Amino acid sequence: MCGRFALFSDPTSIARALRLPPPSEGWQPRYNIAPGTWITGVLRYSTDGDPLFDDVWWGYRPHWAGSSGPEPINARAEKLNSSKYFRGAFHKHRCLIPASGWYEWLPGEGAKQPYFFARQDREPLFLGAIWEPLDDDTACCAIITEPARGIARDIHDRMPLVLDDQSLEAWLDPDLVERDAIRAAVHHLEAEALTAWPVSTRVNRSDQEGPSLVEPLDP
Any keyword DNA damage (predicted)? Predict the structure, then answer.
């Protein structure tokens, strides 16, 4: 799953990777982003519009589900095309969530040990996600997960769908709507490009913030 992540990468470098103008206001570094908050996304609000940076609510609920519908934070890649809840957004409302890395917890005796995952080269990550419009002209989203690969498999059985750099434009392409075409054009980042290290259990509390949360634990 993906239940916590960080975004402290330079907004200019993220915009450059997406071939977009830098966001007008940038954003404050966040080291402990939890569900049920506004997060930075990259999405198209119309098929003829350009991708743009905007805040989206991390918790997905289609408008037709009503206020009592579930509000998942993740969508399993294996169910995107078969689930009524996700299928429409998978074909028409795909978005990207930029991240510097994400957290996962290794089960053990006592408290679970958190790990921080990032790219080996420390470049930004782009997480595949889906979005739906809300009544107030904002949007909500769910981050897509897939079976864990590489080093991530040692910590948890799921991981976010991290896209490779060549797939970003295709993922946002509104004309790419068929499942097979999407699968042919979009690829996840190779597992060998990722690394991870144990971090402080302070990240377990969503009210904790700051760069010390991603610092490796002393051996």
Answer: yes
